[in-house]
Amino acid sequence: MSVRDLRFDVDAVVLDIEGTTSATGFVVDVLYPYSRSRFGALLAERGSDPEVARAVAQVRELTGEPEADAAAVEKTLNSWLDQDRKATPLKTLQGIIWSEGFARGDLVSHFYDDVVPRLHAWHATGVQLYVYSSGSVAAQRAWFTNSPEGDLTSLVSGLYDTENAGPKQEPESYRRIAESTGVAPDRLLFLSDRPGELDAARAAGWWAVGVRRPGEPYYEQGVGDHAQAGTFDEITITTSGSST
Is the dihedral of CA 225, 179, 123, 102 positive or negative? Predict the structure, then answer.
């Protein structure tokens, strides 16, 4: 398929967020500092909450420090944040903090100008839309609920992260999503800016398009031999309703 021949007859589109629907700079410059400033309070005040406690246990397991106290856990979270590590417990705790920030009105999510109109158009024609992001399901839900254009969750049929689907550069994760959605792999299209993710989706039998936006971290690297688009407007989706 040539770069200009971006027409797909599929039943569902699965969206990456950071670098694809939304600017990485917003996540790094706004959301990361917001969570960093609140990790300590979350661990100190709500360490017994089941979701927080589970994430803390995961941090201890990943670091091999079963007795790590809240200060040590916070230090690890900040280190992972500096490395932009896609660790599940980090994303879980960020998701809690961001969800509450969105709910308070401290945060409003970001979408590239071409994205929301295209999502509405695809949804209107019967295409199912899903999200698969390294950010937690809670963070994804808050993101789509609190967009500059209002609540977009009615457009989305399901949310997947590294906990309920698996790592984003492993084909098995995409097989799990296909099984969960009930859509045949060859009726699924994945949009992402990261070559390793596109490779994994294709290895699982999906269609894949690399989204390359100037200024994004993976722009210069390119998307390998995958079809590529600069905006969602360059992608045409039709559906014959043959999902299984």
Answer: negative
